[in-house]
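Quick question, first post here. What does this chain look like in 3D?
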Amino acid sequence: MSGRWRRWDTVIVALLAIASSASGVFNRFAYDDRYIVEQNPATPDLRHWWNAFTTPYWPRKLGGDGYRPLTMLLYRIEWAMGGGKPWIFHATNILLYAASAVLVYFIARRLLPQWAAWVCAALFAVHPVHVEAVAGVVGLSEQLVAVTLLLALLLYLRDRMTGALQPRTGVGIALLYAVSCFSKEHAIVLPALLAAAELLVIDDPTPLRDRIRRLRPLYLGLVMVAVGFVGVRSLVLSDHGIGGFAPFTPFSTLHISNVNRALTALGVVPEWVRLLYWPAHLSAEYGPPDIQIAQGVGLWQLPGFLLLAAIITLGVALWRRQRVISFGIAIVCITLAPSSNFLIPAGIVLAERTLFLPSVGAMLIVGGLLTSIAPRLRARGQLSPHVVQLAGVLLAIVLLTGAVRSSERTTVWHDNQTLFDHMIADAPQTYRAHYMLGAWNFEHKRLRIGEEEYKTALRLFPYDPYLSYNLAEQYRSLNLCGPAIPLYQWTHTLDPNFPLGHAAYAWCLLNEDHYDEARVQALIAIRRGGNLTLMHRILFIADSVKAAETHRGTEAMVRARPSSKVPDSVQNTGRRGAMPLPR
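> Answer (accepted):
Ran it through. Tokens below.
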């Protein structure tokens, strides 16, 4: 790199990141943005900012999972600054993305020659897999975690590669760790990242036992931060009746074991590698049936197993000879672990936003490979100026292609209609793509299209109880209890503990003259805390009709009067929509 380029290297990395994502400043609120930010009544309330630390990330009616108070607090600040306009949320994400790219460059410079470090950071800055984490407003949590964790790692490397860790640096790392954890849960992996850096790239002749003793205060401090965060998170979620991480629906409704969950993740490994190194095809949804849910060991898991085994073996084998490559592999594995489903249910099978931090390790691997190849080519006399120029041209083409691809992909997240239409084009065999488009059309009263998309989703993957329940609710809201009843029944067959729909199911059964079944569902609804007044009304009507039918049957057998007046309370029973159900 020439002298003039060295003066502008950092600026160019930042500009590449901005150029790749700047089109997102015109985006609106889309997908999860609408529930977490736009429609969240707490977002405009900056006066009671401390409530962000006492409430879950997701609204309770949508599951109430997650605990990210600093992210929620920043949403309130952004709302106050911009009056709720989306552009300020997107602009914040773009600036944080540029900061992440610069931090990647600074970290790489401590591990690689400057030219290789710049290539790593430039490739990171234009990587299309980052679009989901930057273009969506809810990607703020990913950006906050990336900036704080990368800065903590940079501070650690700065001190340890030149000597002992300074006390003030340790305090700064602990504070950054706390900010990161309270921004999003996956930041909890920082101690493992620092330990990997200590073992793989810190050249310290001191015996490992002595190094551990000197670093013990830092790691004890980080453990205290982690325990404190987990404790506060558990307390807040338990106060709202929520425990732990929400499982991915197919895992829970199909009663997938931990082993099968890990086998499912094993089948996803090739897709992770593809997205990190060849993100030509992107999608906002990855899931069944396009991605299989394991029901035991299968041949389709073999490529993932072989690939994962090869990656881990390579990382161990290169521990001493190619430390940067080994460290890059460690970063990928560590940062991907919380969302991989190998350890805990992550709530997703795969999402591009979860690859934001792993891509740092993936780009360091590229830098390590380049620095190992370049000296060999030079020694053989194959690294002539013409070859270097050609390499520069190829790099420029790759960077330009990545920036254009990222910029174009960012516009896909402009609004829900645009995003959901692209979902179908990107993942036509993923049921949730049709599920989301169907829900959007129902919301906008395009009922026929919504019904078609829901039915397509059910054909592709009929095992999500929320899908069948929501279609049943759409039918019931139109007073069509006939088609709603089998959907309610299927929902509760899939998951007998499904918390929703028993009251609506009982009401529909009553209106379709299924009195015995209505009585059963009403009793279940009462046990689950349903509307007592309404459920008692359903029980009264069902019992009254049964009694009236029995009475009429008895009179007919003794040839009594042919008719008997039905109580007024049941005169309208059986008419669709005769008794409104509170929604």
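The chain is about 65% helix and 0% strand.
Residues 3-411 form one domain.
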